[in-house]
Amino acid sequence: MNMFKAAVIGLGNIGFFFDLDPLRKETWSHVSAYIKCLRTELVGVVDVDKEKIDIFKQHHNVLTFESIKELMENTAVDIVSICTPTEDHYAILKKLIEYPVKAIFCEKPLAPDICQAKEMVKLCKEKNIVLAINHTRRWDSNYQFAKELIEKGKIGKIKAVNTFYPGQLFNIGTHLLDAVRMLIQKDPCVLSGVSFDIEAQDPSVSGWIEFDESILCTVIATGERKDLVFEIDVVGDEGRMRIIENGEKVEWFVFVESTRCSGYRELSLMQMDPIQKKDRFVESINDIVSVIDGDESTVRCTGNDGYYSLALSVALFESAKEKGMTVNIGEFNAS
Ligand SMILES: NC(=O)c1ccc[n+]([C@@H]2O[C@H](COP(=O)([O-])OP(=O)(O)OC[C@H]3O[C@@H](n4cnc5c(N)ncnc54)[C@H](O)[C@@H]3O)[C@@H](O)[C@H]2O)c1
């Protein structure tokens, strides 16, 4: 079993600090994910904030650095996580690719704009560096289960999708749009957005997206970020798959002959064995490792996927700014 050396840039919430929240029982930080993964060793962390480094040192005996240069010139690193604010992802990725890294695990959204995102994907491709984006649901057992059932045709041909997210299009909406793409595996064609706070730093945008094969998807922003409503409801011509309770519960229904009206069918809830939950953050690291070790060809959330969810969010935002003007989506492809 090959082992890989890992480093984390940025010791904020997702880099490290979420670990200090006593209510978060699963793995919630890059630092913990690398420590728990049996195939990685956390060899260094970087933060420009000395206070963050001091707090980190109280919990871990790992080398700390104040710059990427210092980290990369003092340690050999295979996988690096970018956990800094989104505005810095591009500049940091450009610095990292000057060194012989094998994989970059970048936080979402990939970048603040699609030009930077596109270039990040291109640069990693040119340098043969695996780029993975942390849209966490791609490694979540419930979402994986729903995806596999949909793939196997258990709800038939997809007809409609209904989604809710709390708000903040770029922070949270990018996760939602990525999860929808993962589940239905179709490309969007046209969309329209509406927002009641379009001037906000990260506005909440609702709207609709038409995907290939005339699948209409509603996107509803419900309110405040802190009120965790994140739901996806996929209806097919043979059944329905709902992911509810902020991703904690999956329901699968099939259409059966109605016992109440002749000539109609109604949805019946299927009994299922409990889904075996894996630790999704550790799974994401295992996935990256399996690609750099040659066991898998691609990570579950690629740079192109990250680019795609950002580009869709930008299109929804532009539409909402123009009072719902429909936007035709050409092929989004970063490569
Ligand atoms: N996948 C998820 O579920 C999830 C959850 C939270 C945040 N995020 C994303 O993670 C990123 C970071 O968010 P956060 O809430 O952890 O931010 P944060 O502000 O809590 O932490 C960012 C950290 O990066 C450090 N930093 C800034 N510039 C740096 C540099 N040049 N070199 C080294 N360190 C630097 C800061 O000092 C800070 O400690 C954002 O892109 C955000 O959207 C993703």
How would you characterize the overall build of this protein?
- The chain has 335 residues and is an alpha/beta fold.
- The protein has 2 domains: 4-136 and 282-302, NAD(P)-binding Rossmann-like Domain (Rossmann fold); 138-277 and 309-328, Dihydrodipicolinate Reductase, domain 2 (2-Layer Sandwich).
- It has 9 helices and 15 strands.
- The chain has helices at residues 30-36, 50-57, 68-74, 89-96, 114-126, 141-151, 169-184, 280-292, 303-321, and strands at residues 4-9, 40-46, 64-65, 79-82, 103-106, 130-133, 158-165, 188-195, 205-211, 215-221, 231-236, 239-244, 249-257, 265-269, 327-328.
- The strands form 2 sheets. Strands 14-13-12-11-7-10-9-8-15 form a 9-stranded mixed β-sheet. A 6-stranded parallel β-sheet has the order 3-2-1-4-5-6, sandwiched between helices.
- The mean pLDDT is 96.
- Nicotinamide-adenine-dinucleotide binds at residues 9-15, 46-49, 52, 83-86, 88, 92, 107-108, 134, 136, 171.
